[in-house]
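User: Some background: our group keeps a shared notebook of sequences we're curious about, and every so often someone picks one and asks for a predicted structure to add to the entry. Today it's my turn. The entry only has the sequence so far, pasted here. Could you supply the structure so I can complete it?
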Amino acid sequence: MPTTPSVSPAATATATAADPAGAGWSPPGRTTALLTVTGILVVGQMYIVLPLLGPMARSFSASPGAVTWMATGFGLAYATGFLFAGPLADRYGPRRVIVLGLLATTLTTLAVPLATDLAAGCALRAVQGLAAASFAPAAFSVIATTVAPQRRPFALTCVTSGFLAAAVLVQVASQALESLAGWRTAFLTFGPLMALAAVFARRVLAADGGDRAATVRSAFAAMPRLLATPRLLLLYAATCTLLGGFVALYTAVSLAGPPGVSGNEGALLWLRAGALPAMVAVPLLAGALGRVPGRVRLPAALALAGAAALAASGAGGSAVALGAVLLLLVAGIAIAAPALVEAVAAAGGSARGAAVALYACAMFIGASLGPQLANSLADWGFAGIVRVVAAVFAAGAVLSVAAFSR
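Assistant: Of course. Here's the predicted structure to add to the notebook entry:
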């Protein structure tokens, strides 16, 4: 919570009138908008290669299945980076970590097109993932410490929905940019955009202040205790299923999409863009959804995603039917993500920052394993893969029920 200087009652009243969220807090609109848009750019790098599997495979003389390691390499490094980014934000301040992290992500994103073979591409993607990991934990810290308490649920829902929307928006942009000038164009476009985001972050976000961890080591100290907490372990396991199933399904669309969709660039573009209404609707419904207890909202949302995945296996070759069930699946994930953050933060107690960093790590461990799950099941065809994805979401729902019973 930010520290506020002592002021007179009249000054406090004036400040409160000017800032409806309360004197001393950051303007919630600008802060939320910046973090949401920047999150789309940064988190979208996880998914940027999914529409590029074919073109990259041809460029590197490799199979599309082998190129999925460029997604997995990024994701594993990204998840590992969260373990360091959270403590660094606690020690040095979230705004500083966000700005420097965005500059590092800019450079590493621009380096990926320099790869001349798959091994170099995977290595550069891993470095990019480590740099990109600086953003999410620091963004959650900004919300927790600079946004007024009554505005935090909306800000949190917008930012987490932005993280999920990145999977759709950046895939659509990546596919469009590749069709214009090749796969390298996608990275060459997003790199400068993240540099621009760093400039805005420096200007818009509140200056770092308040208590700081004495050392990075002290900021790490809470993690072993958190990993020994049964409720948190169950929540982290449920978190792995969230993006694990999501990314596996979208990888399956690229690798083994159903007849009438696979290889049809127009249909693939429509499928990726068709989930966007769910990304917009869920934040608008944040108030109503927030009144549903987390112990009900979280497993119900994961169950919805699982049911949608199961329905996708029977969609046949209809792009319209598949798009409709993917819309429901994305809605379920968009509802579940903030519910998981809330549950993890509450279970973390005074070590909330470390708990949320572990949550982000678990989420993207799942995301990094998703492409390999789809690739390993490619011989099962699209329907077989998405049935397994449905089981993954069902397991997440069961784990979340078990967590709330502890």
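Suggested note for the entry: Residues 1-22 have pLDDT under 50 and may be disordered. The longest helix spans residues 152-181.
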